[in-house]
Automatic annotation (TrEMBL):
CDD domains: cupin_KduI_C, cupin_KduI_N. Catalyzes the isomerization of 5-dehydro-4-deoxy-D-glucuronate to 3-deoxy-D-glycero-2,5-hexodiulosonate. This is 4-deoxy-L-threo-5-hexosulose-uronate ketol-isomerase. One of its GO terms (biological process) is D-glucuronate catabolic process. It catalyses: 5-dehydro-4-deoxy-D-glucuronate = 3-deoxy-D-glycero-2,5-hexodiulosonate. NCBIfam families: PRK00924.1. Keywords: Isomerase, Metal-binding, Zinc. Its EC number is 5.3.1.17. It comes from Anaerobium acetethylicum. SUPFAM superfamilies: RmlC-like cupins (SSF51182).
Amino acid sequence: MEIRTASSPRDVKHYTTDRLREEFLIQDLFTPGEIKTVYSHIDRIITGAAVPVEPMILTAGDEIRADYFLQRREMGIINIGGKGTVTVDGTVYELERKDGLYIGMGAKDIVFASADGSNPAKFYFNSAPAHMTYPTVFIKPENCVQVELGSLEESNHRVITKYILPGQVESCQLVMGMTSLKPGSVWNTMPCHTHDRRMEVYLYFDMTDDSLVFHYMGEPSETRHIVMRNEEAVISPSWSIHSGSGTRAYTFIWGMVGENQAFDDMDGASMAEIR
């Protein structure tokens, strides 16, 4: 498990490109036959991925000082690869591409497997500290709350699918979903915002090898950017905007962790103050 510390906005103003990427960019998550995890001190989120060629067991490791991974945590999973299964304490859940799963605190035995090792599942997950147990829930995107926003004229026609949120799939603090841009649209989350009560992680995917997303971060008056490629994730502190513009349409998974689960609790940044 890789450990990332928190960063001050005062310091980030002076980071080089390499230092920005070192602190906030998460690369090489999806490696066949491996489970990779990154632990951030920002709201204690764990971002990870499992790409099972053969069945793989999720273990706690020494870093979180727990007997098992979800002893004091909850987890949301979305599969972005081939068909696979997640077995939770003996119950098997079959996940097609873009299916999701919420696993509550206290689940002990978690096993990832692919239906076809030559076309493995790619289980992307976010995990947050938890204080009580909520039921494990299998999530089909077509059964989720979906919101269509933007327009082609504004280059931001997109569909937001909310997988884990109050009133649909209950959790302690994790909120998770997916945003898909329509062909011809490239912007997400613009006009942009911050939210002091929670942080966020984005995973960009459904990108071609020769396409990029310019992910914008920083305070509204001190923006910076990180160049993102397919299946890379980025950590967004609560003081930072989190917006992107791609060379073509793409999809991203967002996971939020913190004090507040209200999706609309945002501090908007006007276009006039962006610098």
